[in-house]
Write a structure and sequence with these properties.
The complex is a heterodimer of chains A (491) and B (488). Chain A is 79% helix and 2% strand. Chain A has 20 helices and two strands. Chain A has a two-stranded antiparallel sheet with strand order 1-2. The model of chain A has no long low-confidence stretch (mean pLDDT 88). Chain B has a domain of 190 residues. Classes of the chains: A mainly alpha (491), B mainly alpha (488).
């Protein structure tokens, strides 16, 4: 059964578990259920990745209805990687939530929190696996609504405003996508991605298709927080509970990047997206601005969660600039960074979650002297921070290597400079944290390390940064086949 | 044990040693024994690699596949053996010295100190034996990051500021300039292997090659060519054993070693002669050489003066490398050794003076030669080597550099060498004069004799090595000539 239906199960299991969570009493039970679901999903994702690499793309017809009438779920090299990222981060983050969520979320809302979390997981996986554009919109809304709920659970009252801000931006983005999808449907009469790609070729020089394209690209750009549409992101990540920041930072923007890739490369096709419209230039320009503005803003932040949020804006810039290159190497770099950035930001936010658990806040002041007080937590932060900077022997270095190599191959020297300046700015903002933690004295220097149930997931991700920095074969080969899928070669 | 078996061990020993030192942190005597055992073991292993090479079996070991076409790999060739021998040999001496220094000063966090020291040596060994540019770059960064906790050892504001400059300059140059240079080479040639005669020939030319050369020259911040030299004086906030081994030998020599390796095995001498404006590198090094000496002339703090002298001396090596004649290359290589043993002696002496008398300024040294005759005697020998007077190692290297410059009739180089010799004499001889020919101010601020015996033994030994480099320069030069024979 699993062999046939794993693609549907990937979405259905968290979807059904979510209302079950609501029925459970507040306490540890909802957490146990969520953990079990996250691990099952992870197992399914790993199975899926092996299937795709063993036998090629997998297609699943929902309810047995043949596409393009029925909804098709499809797993190829590109979305297998995205599914793997989402499921893996979910499986690591939920165990962390066991200790962290009761400390940061109102006790009466625990069951609801996990219900929303599972819905978010379901939505993100759904976006990744579906082969139907309207279904994609539905899952986008599921994940977005769940995310708004999750963010609003932060103890600080500003979490409500942040969630509201995100809701406004997110809804505009989703509406743009919906308008775009509607226009495409009006022109072609189909919603299946593969079918759309075939039929669009006949009508692609019409103004309606161009308009639809523009709506979809802008909608995706809002969801992936591309500068200057990133304004919702810093607040959302800062005020959300730590687990939510870690989960969303590592997965939500990545899935949005995937949406952009899927539409531009699969649905509209390379020639249309980057030939007829000056998309490459626009994306590259905005990405450069994102890298510089995001990094400089990060340097000036006083709250470390906010600092990491701005750093995410910059990191998304790296992915987008790599996409704008539209070469095999560039797309490899983009997908690779998708994977590596999930690892580093996940680890960084989880380490901060440990800090918040013990110190009650994540501003620079509460990090004073933590090098002594919480040595293991801060060591994990430093490892992930080095990866973010792109120091050799970490995953971040591999990303940077491919990114710079792709830029040099094209002769885009200004991009090379921007990427490296971005790395140096990353070194500055990470080092600000390191200096506070290791050189300033805490008021109460007694050792108070986070419990192992928080440390284990944090270190798992931190060590993954080192492992994939030493042996990058798996992500590199995944990224290379994803790039060849996008460029239309054999997967 | 063959050379190929010994090669991975040269990396494994200091790394495992650091773990062992960390585990033994609670028992200082055992911990120090672990440091000495690791250092001794490493030296023996490096000797094995040397014997393998002398027996005509150059070793090449692939550790793991890293990126397509670029494995993490090690190899042995005369230049790497030389650097590894210098770093690992002097590590033993420095460990002996450091035990006296750290205990004599009652320093805090000694376990962290020895652990980071061992990791830094691991980085230096990796740089020495790297078989390609990427492997070298990886270990180059290991060396930068592992020495940061050593530089900021004191943990006060001064140390933090020093550490900030240190890490800032070294990371900015390596990530901002060296990394793109490495990736550029890979993008043009598809390989990063060090090959005799270089790999760039036929792939690149004209002004692009000049740009690449400049990226390397400034990207290797550890070579301290002005204006990327600022980290070196900043690093002087570190405890003296760190300054002695790392900032006079391992770290800075890793810099000039990298440049020499890039010149010989990536560009190749013949190709580099065709690169337009390659002579700019000579002028930059010449300027640093003279300017470093001039700044050293005005320093009042002993360690800062030694730091600027190091900047100047490093540029001797860069300059000699960029003269691009065989004899000058030999001069550059010999100077790596000659400067290492002499400068470590000078730092050891500065540390011994500090431990014995708490003096750090030059003007306080009046008459100190009578209280610490061995220390100041060793200082005098090392100072002569800096100036380049026989019978010291510094004379040998200067001899080859001048001979190399004559091969090309490089009068700029000759003038710079002459000028800097005068400047070196100008700031080293007054110290020797003060120590032996001036009277101590009355009454002596603090009654003291020589520093602890382990420190004095260490510095006397390195002073002796300075003399031995002069006496036994023949084998050294013949051994290194192999580099040029394989790279015609």
């Amino acid at each position: 059964m699993i062999d046939q239906h794993f693609l549907a199960l990937l979405v259905v299991v968290p979807l059904l578990a979510s209302p079950l969570c609501l029925l459970l009493p507040n306490g540890r039970l909802p957490w146990l259920l969520a953990t079990a679901v996250a691990w099952v999903v992870f197992a399914l994702a790993v199975f899926g990745v092996f299937r795709v690499y063993g036998d090629g793309p997998v297609s699943y017809w929902m309810g047995g209805w043949q596409p393009p009438w029925g909804i098709e779920y499809r797993l190829d090299a590109l979305n297998a990687l995205v599914v793997l990222i989402v499921a893996a981060i979910g499986a690591v983050v939920v165990p962390f939530a066991g200790r962290s969520v009761p400390a940061e979320v109102d006790g009466a809302n625990i069951a609801g929190f996990y219900a929303a979390f599972l819905l978010a997981l379901c939505g993100l996986l759904g976006i990744a696996v579906t082969g139907d554009v309207f279904n994609l919109f539905v899952f986008l809304e599921i994940s977005s609504l769940a995310s708004y709920t999750l963010i609003s659970q932060g103890r600080n009252r500003r979490a409500l405003v942040s969630a509201y801000q995100y809701l406004i931006f997110g809804t505009i983005g989703a509406t743009f996508l919906l308008i775009g999808i509607g226009l495409l449907y009006a022109m072609t009469g189909t919603l299946n991605m593969a079918d759309l790609a075939r039929r669009l070729a006949e009508v692609e020089q019409t103004r309606t298709v161009f308009t639809g394209f523009a709506f979809i690209v802008v909608g995706a750009a809002i969801k992936l927080a591309l500068f200057p549409l990133h304004l919702w992101l810093p607040n959302a990540y800062t005020h959300a509970p730590s687990v939510v920041s870690a989960f969303l930072a590592a997965t939500a923007t990545k899935v949005a990047v995937y949406v952009l890739l899927r539409f531009t490369f699969t649905v509209f096709g390379l020639e249309f997206s980057f030939g007829a419209a000056p998309l490459s230039l626009i994306l590259a320009t905005l990405a450069v601005a994102a890298i510089l503005v995001g990094s400089v803003s990060a340097v000036t932040q006083n709250n470390v969660k906010r600092l990491l949020a701005y750093s995410s804006v910059a990191q998304i810039g790296y992915m987008v600039v790599a996409i704008a290159m539209v070469t095999a190497l560039g797309l490899t770099a983009a997908t690779l960074h998708l994977f590596n950035h999930a690892l580093m930001k996940g680890a960084l936010f989880l380490a901060l979650g440990c800090v918040v658990y013990r110190m009650g806040g994540a501003d620079m002041d509460s990090l004073r002297g933590l090098g002594r007080k919480m040595p293991l937590t801060m060591a994990a932060f430093v490892v992930a921070g080095l990866s973010l900077i792109g120091v050799p022997l970490t995953a971040g270095f591999i990303s940077k290597w491919y990114l710079v190599l792709a830029a040099i191959e094209l002769g885009w020297w200004p991009i090379v400079a921007v990427v490296l300046v971005g790395s140096l700015l990353a070194a500055i903002y990470i080092w600000r944290v390191v200096e506070v933690a290791y050189f300033r004295e805490a008021d109460d220097p007694a050792r108070s390390e986070a419990p192992w149930s928080l440390l284990a997931p944090t270190w798992l991700l931190a060590l993954a940064n080192i492992y994939f920095g030493l042996d990058a074969r798996l992500p590199v080969s995944l990224a290379e086949s994803a790039a060849s899928v996008m460029l239309g070669g054999a997967p | 044990m063959t050379g190929a078996e010994a090669l991975p061990l040269a990396l494994a020993i200091p790394l495992l040693g650091s773990v062992l030192i960390a585990l033994l942190g609670r028992w200082p005597n055992l911990r120090e024994a672990a440091t000495l055992a690791t250092a001794g073991g490493l030296f023996l292993v490096v000797l094995q690699v040397l014997f393998g090479l002398l027996a005509g079996e150059p070793a090449e070991v692939e550790l793991m596949r890293f990126l397509p076409g670029v494995p993490l790999a090690l190899h042995s060739e005369p230049l790497s053996i030389l650097f590894a021998l210098v770093a690992s040999g002097l590590w033993i001496v420095t460990s002996v010295y450091a035990i006296g220094y750290m205990r004599g000063n009652n320093e805090k966090h000694q376990t962290r100190f020895y652990v980071c020291f061992a990791v830094a040596i691991f980085g230096a060994m990796g740089v020495a034996f790297a078989a390609n540019l990427l492997t070298l770059f990886l270990f180059y960064e290991v060396l930068t990051l592992s020495t940061y906790p050593l530089v900021t050892h004191k943990g006060d504001d001064n140390a933090r500021r020093g550490g900030r400059v240190y890490l800032g300059v070294l990371l900015a140059t390596s990530i901002g300039l060296l990394l793109p240079a490495v990736i550029w080479v890979y993008s043009e040639t598809g390989t990063l292997d060090f090959r005799p005669g270089g790999i760039l020939e036929g792939h690149m030319g004209g002004i692009a090659a000049t740009a690449l050369l400049m990226l390397f020259l400034f990207g290797v911040g550890k070579a301290a060519v002005m204006p990327v030299h600022r980290w070196l004086p900043a690093a002087m906030v570190a405890p003296t054993p760190v300054s002695a081994l790392l900032h006079a030998v391992a770290v800075v020599k890793a810099g000039v070693f990298t440049l020499t390796k890039v010149v010989l095995y990536i560009f190749g001498l013949d190709f580099l002669r065709e690169v337009p404006y390659e002579v700019v590198a000579v002028y930059l090094a010449g300027f640093t050489l003279v300017a470093g000496s001039v700044v050293a002339l005005y320093q009042t703090n002993i360690k800062r003066m030694l730091a600027y002298s190091t900047i100047s001396q490093l540029s001797y090596i860069v300059l000699a490398t960029m003269v691009l004649t065989p004899l000058a290359e030999i001069g550059a290589v010999v100077h790596i050794v000659a400067h290492a043993v002499a400068k470590i002696t000078l730092f050891f002496a500065a540390g011994a003076i500090y431990v014995a008398s708490k003096k750090t300024e030059i003007h306080q040294l009046d008459g100190i030669g009578y209280r610490m005759p061995v220390t100041m005697g060793a200082f005098a020998i090392a100072a002569l080597s800096m100036i380049g007077v026989p019978p010291t190692g510094g004379f040998v290297s200067k001899w080859y550099m001048i001979a190399g410059a004559f091969q090309h009739d490089y009068y700029f180089v000759l003038a710079v060498l002459a000028l800097s010799t005068a400047l070196n004499a100008g700031y080293f001889l007054p110290i020797v004069f003060r120590a032996f020919f001036r009277r101590e101010p009355e009454p002596p601020a603090r009654d003291h004799g020589e520093a602890p015996v382990t420190m004095v033994a260490a510095l006397a030994f390195t002073a002796l090595l300075t003399l031995l480099v002069f006496v036994f320069n023949g084998p050294l030069v013949t051994f290194e000539q192999v580099i040029l024979e394989v790279a015609p």
